[in-house]
Amino acid sequence: MTATLNDVAKNREAEQSAEEQAATELVRAAGERGLSLTGPDGLLKQLTKTVLETALGEEMPSTWVMRSTTRPVPGRATSAMAVGASRY
Questions:
Q1: pTM above the 0.70 mark?
Q2: CA 22 to CA 31: how far, in whole Å?
Q3: Which of 50, 67, 83, 86 has its CA 20 to 30 A from that of 16?
Q4: What is the extent of the structural domain holding 24?
Q5: Does 76 map to a domain?
């Protein structure tokens, strides 16, 4: 039975997506450093902050370029206006 359980564990590791593998490694490394998973200084907070900052960093430069090169057409709503943005 032990051999069977080990085989299942190995198969599960082989089937993990890149995201699952990254999460597994992050949780393992956090445990080794004594970092909690939740809480004000936990792994989840740090990871969420990093992902959001990275996403915003990727999004913002392209948004700035679009806004600086796109001129509004009189009488026609821009995409930002269509979703309710009040400022540029």
A1: no
A2: 14
A3: 50
A4: 1-52
A5: no
